[in-house]
From TrEMBL:
Residues 18-160 form the DUF1468 domain. It comes from the Bacteria. The keyword Metal-binding does not apply. Keywords: Membrane, Transmembrane, Transmembrane helix. This is DUF1468 domain-containing protein. The chain crosses the membrane at residues 17-38, 50-74, 94-121, 133-151.
Length: 171
């Protein structure tokens, strides 16, 4: 009779279990490090520890989910073998993603956060195979607008609005 460890190795799920457990350990280390962040008494509810804790919690939950599902033998993304029929090589994918990052850096000063983020989102989605740039732009607009509102209005972080949003704010 095979042990659970041997069955995990034979099924190919062992790497998923190991990665999941490593993610859980990483989230614990992140949480421990976050407790050392000093805060001034001026912060009410949302301080500099909230978002790092949320990220640590998310990483821990995803890691636990991955480890548990692999341990229980729940099939993941590679269960139905789908042959790779793409003709593109990894080079164009990387070029689109890196190009999106560069476009964001350049566009941040010229266009502002929201429009630079939309361009980056569309280019990154294209790099991962999306051909629906209009839908990608709408998704990018929704995500970037929420992020802009959260940082500029809720957290009062000064991020570049760009000429169009400056016109809306001042008008």
């Amino acid at each position: 009779m095979l042990t659970k460890f041997a069955r995990l190795r034979r099924s190919g799920a062992l790497p998923d279990v190991i990665i999941g457990l490593a993610m859980v350990l990483l989230s614990v280390a992140m949480a421990m490090a976050i407790t050392t962040i000093r805060t001034s008494p001026g912060y009410a509810y949302v301080g500099p520890k909230v978002f790092p804790f949320a990220v640590a919690l998310f990483v821990g939950l995803v890691g636990a989910g991955l480890a548990i599902s692999a341990f229980l033998g729940i099939a993941g993304s590679d269960s139905p073998a789908v042959p790779d029929t793409s003709t593109e090589k990894p080079g164009p994918t990387m070029a689109w993603v890196v190009g999106g990052l560069i476009a964001n850096l350049v566009g941040l000063a010229l266009l502002g956060f929201v429009f630079a983020a939309i361009i980056q989102y569309v280019m990154t989605a294209r790099g991962f195979g999306s051909r629906r740039w209009r839908l990608d732009a709408v998704c990018g607009l929704a995500l970037a607008s929420c992020a802009y509102f959260l940082f500029s209005e809720v957290l009062k972080v000064n991020i570049p609005a760009g000429p169009l949003l400056e016109l809306i704010h001042n008008g």
